[in-house]
Design a protein that fits this description.
With 130 residues, the chain is mainly alpha-helical. It is built from five helices and no strands.
């Protein structure tokens, strides 16, 4: 099978390098890694080499490159990831965020504040474990 090597216009290359750095600075490490895969592939590195360097499965690297070819940068961004549904109601979240604001203003609470030690006015859901 022939290696997939992307050819990028110099301005596109610079833009992807810049976006990769910005993503990393913003804490979007997974997006930065995908962008780095595209940039390095355009420099001549194969999916197998990138997989080893980026410590990712080769199939994922190939998927990232394919998504870049078909969808552009948008194909490398974080999509919706499902997770366990929250058991907290909107009322609980409002109370938590209100308390979070006062928490940030009072650094002495930092060592003791946790979900288990939430103020009594923020009750845990009935089926939650304390």
């Amino acid at each position: 099978m022939l290696a997939r090597l992307l050819r990028l216009h110099p301005s596109t290359y610079k833009r992807l390098v810049r976006l990769s750095k910005e993503a990393e600075q913003d804490g979007a490490y997974r997006v930065a890694r995908r962008l780095q895969a595209v940039v390095r592939n355009s420099e001549g590195q194969t999916s197998s080499e990138l997989a080893r360097i980026l410590k990712a499965p080769r199939s994922k690297v190939s998927e990232w490159l394919h998504r870049y070819q078909t969808e552009g940068v948008d194909g490398l961004l974080e999509g919706y990831r499902s997770g366990r549904p929250s058991e907290l109601t909107d009322k609980h979240w409002a109370l938590i965020f209100t308390d979070e604001a006062s928490f940030r203003q009072n650094s002495t609470l930092h060592a003791t504040w946790s979900r288990v030690r939430c103020p009594p006015e923020v009750p845990l859901p009935e089926n939650a474990k304390a």
